[in-house]
Amino acid sequence: MKEKMKNQNPEAEIRKSCVLLFAFCLFTCLGLCGCKGICGYSNESLFPQDVNTVCLEMFDNRTFRRGAEYELSDALAKRIEVDTPYKIVSSADRADTVMNGQIVSITESALSLERELGRVLEKEVEVRAVVNWKNLKTGELLIANQQVSASATYSTFQKQDFSYASSLAANNLARKIVELMEKKW
Question: Do 70 and 31 share a structural domain?
Fold first, then answer.
């Protein structure tokens, strides 16, 4: 009886090792082949490759807050230079694409109140803009009248003011606009 048990164990061990070897080979082959065809992963750039330069026009400001268009345009130019492979040029004649837009609203709202006196402790500034991005070579609209918004908070008790929050909101909005410049998945 002990001999039968000894004879059965080697077969089970061989089967177990064959299954493990097969699984190891399968996962190794999948790892060497990559996941592009299977999962959709790639190391390609997220931005369109046929574009090298962007002419960034000054955003229009449809609100009564002065200077917001300068903050947004400046933040967007810096963000494009840092986060994308594109260069900003001043003339549309030398650019592959042109980006423009308009700030449609800047709102301020209270987030929290002091219980005893009802003073506002924290406020939020939201900036909304409409963005267009056109490829001048093909005439294709890469971004067509896309509405984007971003917000930032501030507190006067922390020595912050509206201009601080609007600057933060402009930077957040510039980041979101650069995310829109990426190719669709």
Answer: no
Q: With respect to residue 47, please indicate whether it lies within any of the assigned structural domains.
A: no
pLDDT at 3 over 70: no
- The pTM of the full predicted model, rounded to 2 decimals, is 0.75
Is residue 48 within 8 Å of residue 142, measured between CB atoms? yes
In a domain, 7, yes or no: yes
Q: Cβ of 133: how many Cβ atoms within 10 Å?
A: 22
Helix (H, G, I), strand (E, B) or coil at 184: coil
Residue 167 backbone class (left: φ over 0; alpha: ψ -120 to 50; beta: rest)? alpha
136, with CB counted inside 10 A (0-12, 13-18, 19+), is: middle
The count of structural domains within the chain is 2
Q: Which domain holds residue 34?
A: 2-39
Classify residue 44: in a domain, yes or no. no
Query: Mean pLDDT, the chain, as a whole number?
Result: 87
- Give the CA-trace dihedral at 37, 40, 42, 44, to 10 degrees: 110
More confident call, 131 vs 19: 131
Distance between CA atoms of residues 103 and 63, nearest Å:
7
Alpha-carbon distance of 10 to 14, in angstroms, equals: 6
**pLDDT tens-digit readout, 66-124:** 999 999 999 999 999 999 999 999 999 999 999 999 999 999 999 998 888 888 899 99
